[in-house]
């Protein structure tokens, strides 16, 4: 199935991350994306005033794997050890709507044509929502990079944006994939180190405690928010079945409302939590790297002492120790900067998204009111076999509300 | 407008039914299939979506208009109920409440006793207010008596609530948890609805068993309602036999009304069952939503606690509170979904089964009549054959015998025809009464349900509007 999104849709897609940097010298967006079977092809569009690029305005097609390559390239760059590398965008996951579509196809015989069309519509909307989400997430990743003073100048990043041929030649081959697996194992060992090491700096001590705790809590919240939105989706689907059985003739606002609430909530709350879950992991990675350099430094100190004792290769050991200290200081300095700006970013993003979510909930609840009465007008019409005028019914509903006030 | 066209078409298919309603209320004996002239000018004002002031059944009054000679506008005002009450005598004023479920006894012989309170001003009852204690099998006993007495002559006897082995065992065993409390409440509510429906039927109300049930303090134990009793097994055998018979009877339906009604009820049955299943699904999912919202609320609270930015932390805690309140809201809505909507649909699914049963009885009556007629015909043939027999001495005796039999059979055939006509007439009345009741029932419940939905939405708005400033206050 192929589908594209255009600019008007993009306007509505709301970002979970905010750019605190108002620098417009490098503007990136994904105006267009194509979905074919499993693969999503993004069109990455760059507008820049920087001279380091060949053209001021250009676009390239990219796949999800290209983004992953870029992310890993950045992570592996030694120089960026002291920076929070924005988390890699997750793989586009169309599994859930595809499964539902399959089930719908199987159950087609048992449903009326109307019901089937409606369910199909809902499913298509869900599919579109997943699609929009994945585009957004990839876009945010690039925008984070472009707004970072150091990362935006990265050579690989430039290649990613500019290189107009297929990037697959530069992507991981099997050996390197194995290497990254190994790296993940090393990382879990890091977690042990980081909790064991004695922190010299108050700031980092605080940050460490906070991030570890927050990380587990946000993971938990994300999982539960996902469950909640799934249940809400089920309720919305039930309304579709009910209303189709009611033989509704005209617009069924009720189902649309319930369905919309589920998918908009999805975009807001769950996405917010999911994104920051990954971002917090990236922040933790920074702490790991710094902790590793601290461990290295301590080791080099021990090595220096041993060398001095034996009066052998003291100079080399001294140099080693100096290097470690330098690295550690560099990481601590940039780490502090990064973590502080991270906090600011997070607070602003939460605020924005929570406000938007609350406003959407209110809007939908208000629409739901009229939607319900509309669908029930039709229900009464069918079951009671009498002719109600719509005016009369809303009047009675209003009087109910007024009497309650 | 497209809507009005569909309305019109729909109305056309309903006219015969409503014709009956008109007949019933006016106690005018008309043939059911009499054509009513539905010329457009008369129908137009009804179909327009103009400001019709009352939620009233408009069509029957339109049919009555030419006869009664009242102004159309005025007719629109009068509801069908008013017209009926003008005709009937003692207005229906009775209220039955089933309450105070109490467990009596212990172990597997334990049962739930319910208090049945009857409040009425009707003269046929000895007291204005009576209270008795009854158990579930008493209700079943009452129903089985009524069914055996009235179903086969065409009265729609409301079905009793279903037995539930699982539910009762939990109660007997003494499990004091939420699900057994829910079960008892569900049963109590169902019993109340059952009694109210039974007494709303003018014929059943006057039945001595019903009066005894409501008034006498002691009732003989209805043992025959137990599933494994002799009567229970007999019931099962009869049901099987009936099912087989139904397949073999092929009735010549001479009356288009019955044909149409039968079809209508079949359709309604299907639709209601489907709707009922969907609503049960909805109840289940809404309960799930409530549980998940509560769990999310908890985790949001914890997240708020570990957040070090004060304003954000406060906002997250507020979010947690909002979600908790919403969870309660979902729970209440699920409760309303169920007790208002789902149970009503379930009742009507069972009621329609009873209606279909009544139609089947009519078929059986017809079949009996036809069989008797066939037998009569055979005997007559036998009689005429005797004329050509060559046994003069036995001839007279045989002829006399046959004549007797023929007379008897003729009597039976007449009776059969009368029975059939009676049951047809009764069914017509019953069906129109049923339709009226159905309309009333659904109207009451739907409005209540709509109220609950509107209320939920309003509460949602309030909660989120209270949260919004908190979110905006994050700095």
Characterise the protein shown here.
The complex is a heterodimer of chains A (405) and B (475). Chain A is mostly helical. Helices cover 70% and strands 7% of the residues of chain A. Chain A contains ten helices and three strands. The longest helix of chain A has 70 residues. Chain B has 475 residues and is mostly helical. Chain B has a three-stranded antiparallel β-sheet. In chain B, a hairpin with an 8-residue loop joins strand 2 and strand 3. Chain B is elongated and about 120 Å long. At the A-B interface, helix 7, helix 9 and helix 10 of A face helix 1, helix 12, helix 13 and helix 14 of B. Chain B: One of its GO terms (molecular function) is phosphatidylinositol binding. Chain B: It comes from Oncorhynchus kisutch (Coho salmon).
Topology overview:
The complex is a heterodimer of chains A (405) and B (475).
Chain A: H1 7-12, E1 26-36, E2 39-48, E3 57-63, H2 64-76, H3 95-106, H4 113-147, H5 155-162, H6 174-196, H7 202-245, H8 253-310, H9 314-383, H10 390-404
Chain B: H1 2-26, H2 40-47, H3 58-68, H4 72-77, H5 80-87, E1 94-104, E2 111-120, E3 129-135, H6 136-150, H7 165-173, H8 178-200, H9 202-205, H10 208-215, H11 230-248, H12 256-306, H13 310-387, H14 392-472
Antiparallel strand pairs in B: 1-2, 2-3
Helix pairs in contact in B: 1-3, 1-14, 7-8, 12-13, 13-14
GO biological process, one term (chain A): retrograde transport, endosome to Golgi
Function (chain A): Involved in several stages of intracellular trafficking.
Protein name (chain A): Sorting nexin
Q: Could you list the spans of chain B in which at least 5 consecutive residues all have pLDDT below 50? A: 1-89
Total strand segments of chain A = 3
- The overall average pLDDT of chain B, rounded, is 74
Taken from the alpha-carbon principal axes, the silhouette of chain B is elongated
What is the topology, as strand order, of the major beta sheet of chain B? 1-2-3
Which H/E pattern describes the elements of chain A?
HEEEHHHHHHHHH
The helix fraction of chain B, in percent, is over 70%
Going by helix content, strand content and strand pairing, the class of chain A is mainly alpha
The rounded distance between the terminal residues' Cα atoms of chain A is: 51 Å
DSSP summary: helix tally of chain A? 10
The class by helix and strand makeup of chain B works out as mainly alpha
Proportion of residues in β-strands of chain A: 5-15%
Radius of gyration of chain B: 30 Å
**What is the average per-residue confidence, as pLDDT of chain A, rounded to a whole number?**
74
> Largest interface, per-chain counts?
A-B, 60 and 72 residues
Distance between the termini of chain B: 54 Å
Q: What summary fits the major beta sheet of chain B? A: 3 strands, antiparallel
Shape of chain A: elongated
Strand content of chain B: 5-15%
SS elements, strand count of chain B: 3
Keywords (chain A): Protein transport, Transport
GO molecular function, one term (chain A): dynactin binding
GO cellular component, one term (chain A): cytosol
Organism (chain A): Oncorhynchus kisutch (Coho salmon)
């Amino acid at each position: 199935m192929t589908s594209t999104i255009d600019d008007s849709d993009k306007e509505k897609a709301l970002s979970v991350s905010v750019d605190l940097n108002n620098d417009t010298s490098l503007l990136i967006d994904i105006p267009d994306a194509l979905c074919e079977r499993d693969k999503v092809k993004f069109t990455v569009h760059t507008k820049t005033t920087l001279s380091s690029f060949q053209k001021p305005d250009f676009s390239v097609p990219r796949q999800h794997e290209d983004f992953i390559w870029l992310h890993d390239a950045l992570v592996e760059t030694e120089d960026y050890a002291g920076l929070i590398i924005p988390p890699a965008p997750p793989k586009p996951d169309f599994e859930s709507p595809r499964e539902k579509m399959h089930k719908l196809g199987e159950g087609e015989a048992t449903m009326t044509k109307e019901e089937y069309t409606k369910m199909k519509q809902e499913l298509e909307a869900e599919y579109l929502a997943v699609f929009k989400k994945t585009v957004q997430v990839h876009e945010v990743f690039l925008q984070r990079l472009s707004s970072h003073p150091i990362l935006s100048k990265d050579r690989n990043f430039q290649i990613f944006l500019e290189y107009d041929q297929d990037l697959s030649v530069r992507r991981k081959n099997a050996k390197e994939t194995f290497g990254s697996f190994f790296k993940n194992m090393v990382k879990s060992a890091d977690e042990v180190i980081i909790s064991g090491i004695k922190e010299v700096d108050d700031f980092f001590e605080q940050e460490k405690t906070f991030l570890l705790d927050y990380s587990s809590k946000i993971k938990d919240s994300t999982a539960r928010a996902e469950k909640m939105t799934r249940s809400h989706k089920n309720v919305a689907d039930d309304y579709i079945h009910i209303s189709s059985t009611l033989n509704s003739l005209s617009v069924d606002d009720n189902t649309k409302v319930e369905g919309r609430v589920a998918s908009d909530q999805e975009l807001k709350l769950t996405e917010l939590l999911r994104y920051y879950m990954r971002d917090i992991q990236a922040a933790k990675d920074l702490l790991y790297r710094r902790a590793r350099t601290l461990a290295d430094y301590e080791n080099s100190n021990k090595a220096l002492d041993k060398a001095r004792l034996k009066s052998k290769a003291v100079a080399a050991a001294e140099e080693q120790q100096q290097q470690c200290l330098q690295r550690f200081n560099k990481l601590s300095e940039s780490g502090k900067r990064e973590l502080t700006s991270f906090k600011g970013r997070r607070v602003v993003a939460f605020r924005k998204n929570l406000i938007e979510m609350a406003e959407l909930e209110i809007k939908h609840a208000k629409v739901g009111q009229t939607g319900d009465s509309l669908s029930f007008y039709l229900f009464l019409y069918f079951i009671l076999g009498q002719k109600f005028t719509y005016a009369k019914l809303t009047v009675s509903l209003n009087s109910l509300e007024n009497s309650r006030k | 407008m497209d809507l009005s066209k569909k309305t019109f078409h729909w109305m056309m298919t309903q006219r015969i039914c409503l014709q009956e309603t008109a007949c019933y209320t006016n106690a005018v004996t008309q043939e059911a299939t009499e054509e009513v002239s539905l010329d457009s000018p008369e129908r137009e004002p009804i179909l327009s979506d103009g400001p019709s002031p009352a939620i009233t059944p408009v069509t029957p009054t339109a049919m009555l208009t030419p006869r009664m000679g009242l102004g159309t506008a005025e007719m629109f005002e009068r509801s069908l109920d008013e017209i009926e009450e003008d005709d009937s005598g003692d207005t229906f004023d009775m209220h039955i409440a089933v309450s105070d479920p109490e467990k009596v006894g212990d172990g597997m012989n334990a049962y739930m006793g319910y208090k049945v309170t009857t409040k009425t001003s009707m003269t046929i009852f000895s007291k204005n207010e009576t209270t008795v204690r009854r158990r579930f099998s008493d209700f079943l006993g009452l129903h089985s008596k009524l069914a055996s007495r009235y179903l086969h002559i065409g009265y729609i006897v409301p079905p009793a609530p279903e037995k539930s082995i699982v539910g009762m065992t939990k109660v007997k065993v003494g499990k004091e948890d939420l699900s057994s409390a829910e079960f008892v409440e569900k049963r109590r509510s169902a019993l109340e609805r059952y009694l109210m429906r039974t007494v709303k039927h003018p014929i059943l109300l006057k039945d001595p068993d019903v009066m005894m049930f409501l008034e006498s303090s002691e009732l003989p134990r209805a043992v025959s309602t137990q599933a494994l009793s002799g009567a229970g097994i007999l019931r099962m055998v009869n049901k099987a036999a009936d099912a087989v018979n139904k397949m073999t009877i092929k009735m010549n339906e001479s009356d288009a009304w019955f044909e149409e009604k039968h079809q209508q009820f079949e359709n309604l049955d299907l639709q209601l069952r489907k709707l009922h299943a969907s609503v049960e699904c909805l109840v289940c999912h809404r309960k799930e939503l409530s549980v998940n919202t509560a769990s999310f609320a908890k985790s949001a609270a914890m997240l708020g606690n570990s957040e070090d930015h004060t304003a954000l932390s406060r906002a997250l805690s507020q979010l947690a509170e909002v979600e908790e309140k919403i969870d309660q809201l979902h729970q209440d809505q699920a409760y309303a979904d169920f007790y208002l909507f789902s149970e009503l649909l379930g009742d009507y699914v069972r009621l329609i089964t009873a209606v279909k049963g009544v139609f089947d009885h009519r078929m059986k009556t017809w079949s009996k009549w036809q069989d008797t007629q066939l037998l009569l015909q055979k005997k007559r043939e036998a009689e005429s054959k005797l004329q050509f027999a060559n046994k003069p001495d036995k001839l007279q005796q045989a002829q006399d015998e046959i004549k007797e039999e023929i007379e008897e059979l003729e009597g039976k055939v007449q009776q059969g025809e009368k029975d059939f006509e009676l049951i047809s007439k009764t069914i017509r009345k019953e069906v129109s009464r049923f339709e009226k009741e159905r309309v009333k029932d659904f109207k009451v419940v739907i409005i209540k349900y709509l109220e609950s939905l509107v209320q939920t939405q309003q509460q949602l708005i309030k909660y989120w509007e209270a949260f919004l400033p908190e979110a905006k206050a994050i700095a």
